[in-house]
Amino acid sequence: MAYANHSRLKNSFVIFSLAVAISIISWAGTATFSIPGLTSIASAQFRGALLGSTTNQTVPNLTETTVAWNTVAYDTDNFNTVPSFFIIPAGVSKIRVSGSVVWSPYILGSRFLWVELNGQTIPLGRGLSSIPATQNIAMGQEVRSAVIQVSQGQSLRLKVYQNSGIPLTVYGSNTASWFAIEVLE
Questions:
Q1: Are residues 148 and 168 in the same domain?
Q2: For the chain, which terminal residue's Cβ has fewer other Cβ atoms within 10 angstroms, N or C?
């Protein structure tokens, strides 16, 4: 009887150790390990892309405008094969996108920022940001989507709109204007 309890305790310790190892590896990043009697297990690896710009972009009054990007900080799956937006590659079904722009200062109107999927408004979870104008201060604006179901070949764009009465600038020559995609599944 004592041997049976010892064996159960030993098996419980192995399972507990495995759970702790998986937790540590998940926290630390990509790693592969094997346990005798089990096949190799690999933790999930980050997948996504981050775009930026080195130039400013003029946004006309009362005109929906796609934000242009010309710098790729990283791109794990060739999402940015077409400038200024992401294309969903094979094997990706759920993503989250986020972005940020910095507007030139002007006292009138509002500024809007959102994400489009295939040139259409995402019905639920798209992320939309609107802010009123401020005087003499450049304005930062961010947006983040919920988890979005996608399929291969679909495109995602970051869009802006403003109604100040004059053209405004989205600053690109800083690190505050960017567009990112993260693969969840």
A1: yes
A2: N
CA distance 108 to 179: 26
pLDDT one-digit tens code per residue, 17-67: 433 333 333 334 444 434 444 344 444 699 999 999 999 999 999 999 999
Residues 29, 53 share a domain: no
* Residues spanned by the domain of 35: 2-42
What six digits make up the tokens of 85? 């937006």
Q: Are 104 and 147 in contact (CB under 8 A)?
A: no
| pLDDT above 80: residue 123 | no
Q: Which residues on adjacent β-strands are paired with residue 183? A: 95
How confident is the model at residue 173, as a pLDDT?
80
Instruction: Please provide the size of the chain in residues.
Output: 185
Distance CA 84, CA 59 (A): 15
Domain check: are 90 and 107 in the same one? Answer: yes
